[in-house]
Amino acid sequence: MILDLFAGPGGWSHALTVLGTRDVGLEWDEWACKTRARAGQLTIRTDVAAYPTWIFSGRILGLIASPPCQAWSKAGKRLGLVDQPLVHQAVADLSAGRDTRDHLIGACADARSLLAAEPMRYLHALNLVGEPEWVVMEEVPDVLPLWRQYAAILRGWGFSVWTGVLNAADFGVPQTRRRAILLASRVRTAEPPPPTHAQLAEPQSLFGPGRERWVSMAEALGWGRTDGPVPTVCAGGGPGGGPEPFPSGSRKTLTDARDRGTWTPRTDTETALAARKDGSSRVAHHGTRHHRLSNVATPRFTAEADRWSWSLRSNNQTNATVRSLTEPASTLFFGRRVNQCSWVAEPVHPPDGTEPAEAPPPIRITAREAGLLQTFPADYPWQGNKGRRFSQIGNAVPPRLAAHLLAPHLGKPFNPDDFTLAA
User: Fold this and answer.
1) Domain boundaries in the chain?
2) 374-383 tens-digit pLDDT
3) Is the pTM of this model over 0.70?
């Protein structure tokens, strides 16, 4: 079997499903486990730090681990950096079969820091029986020194190992999410997958086709051409399970536009969106590709369409990252900022010099949109209230990146058509 430590809501698991196999996930969070269950993924709800390793001895082909990043992430206090020497000590001790976690955790500024040492407890136990065949691990970039320590130990056990930082946007994820990666194998040379995308599209050369341009948010969300689409405005998913609680005035602005007859679906040479009044689904055409979109209207103010440029603002802080719809999103993280990641409109001054009307108010991102930007399917069965759903989405591994990393170890071809845009 493939063992997935800290499995979360199923980023790795969904990638494995697309590749034609599955894993067994160990996860503690109640709502992530419920999401996994609804997605049909095998899960043991447990504390990874307390679960016995002998149960898996003689059964494991591959091991995946994405320890919780809260102690290390820039979105938090980053106490993992303070605790880093203690975590290195725990890894060294566990690799030699010495369990000093109870002693070390008491000295940690953040007890979650030590979770990054947990994969070594499993790896040491499995190595005694010559397992696993391969290992894939992922964390925020600041954990890279720890992955290098793991790499030195695994090489001593006969693994080929690669460590480094990869940008998810280079692999077709509409998000510039940078992550520290460890790849190890007993049977093949460990190396990162070749990137498929670049910030600027590359022309074809004698060596073959160049890389495609990074996938923009507009492409991923199925909003067509990127010079003025208006974000989703009705999607549900409030804290009590009711309608999305948009900021004051935004719903009325869009309703007034609809009533005036100026709310119409976008149509251009690349994308034709047809939203019927009876609520039926519509089809987006990406070149020769056809993707069935769920029934969420993509409105347009025809009179003001060219006067506003929409962007995604990561939070309400003055230094918040703001990205245009023509670009990938920045790294999605939520937690306490769940209600602060919003679509914002910036004025575009037309050649005639006229000023646009008052800007539409910010519109908060929906769980569906955030999931799509992580490359989950639009209908992925997120469970829990709004905060719990966003927490799962922000902590998940983008399935498209995961599939690129896993496919070589499984001997499976990666098919980008399996990760359709806004499907």
Assistant:
1) 2-200+398-418, 217-327+333-373
2) 999 999 999 9
3) yes
